[in-house]
Amino acid sequence: MYAIIKTGGKQYKVQENDVLKVERLEAQVGDKVTFDVLMLGEDKGGVFGNPTINGASVTAEVLENGKGPKVQLAIYKKMNGHHRAQGHRQPYSKIKIVSIKK
């Protein structure tokens, strides 16, 4: 069985014991987090919510909070010789799916 959940403006297809990185959650390492379910599916079909399925939830455990790799950005304006360098590291939370409840 799998579920489609929404967090951080993105949708993820998850199964039990999956480990994935999502946008940073307001939770500490070891906390349990519950997500609403947009769709439940099996091999031969699925159940869609409008927008979510009442009573269905996905429980996950936060394994790690961190930052992704640095992305370098360079800005140059040729006419006035303006240079600027900038970097960005996207924060994330690494979660493990514990259970999917119908």
Describe the structure.
This protein is an all-beta fold and 102 residues long. It has one domain. Helices cover 0% and strands 66% of the residues. The protein is built from no helices and 9 strands. The strands form 2 sheets. Strands 1, 2, 3, 4, 5, 6 and 9 form a 7-stranded antiparallel sheet that branches. A two-stranded antiparallel ribbon has the order 7-8. It starts with a strand and ends with a strand.
Question: Which spans have pLDDT < 50 for at least 5 consecutive residues?
Answer: none
Number of DSSP helical runs: 0
Strand content: over 45%
Which word captures the global form? elongated
Number of domains in the coordinates? Answer: 1
Largest sheet: 7 strands, antiparallel
Counting copies of identical and different chains, the oligomeric state is single chain
Helix content: under 10%
Question: Features of this protein?
Answer:
single chain, 102 residues, mainly beta, seven-stranded antiparallel beta sheet, two-stranded antiparallel sheet, 9 strands, 66% strand, elongated
Summarize the structure.
The protein is mainly beta and 102 residues long. It has strands at 2-7, 10-14, 19-23, 32-42, 45-48, 57-67, 71-77, 82-88, 91-101.
Set out the fold topology.
Layout: E1 2-7, E2 10-14, E3 19-23, E4 32-42, E5 45-48, E6 57-67, E7 71-77, E8 82-88, E9 91-101
Antiparallel strand pairs: 1-2, 1-4, 3-9, 4-5, 4-6, 6-9, 7-8
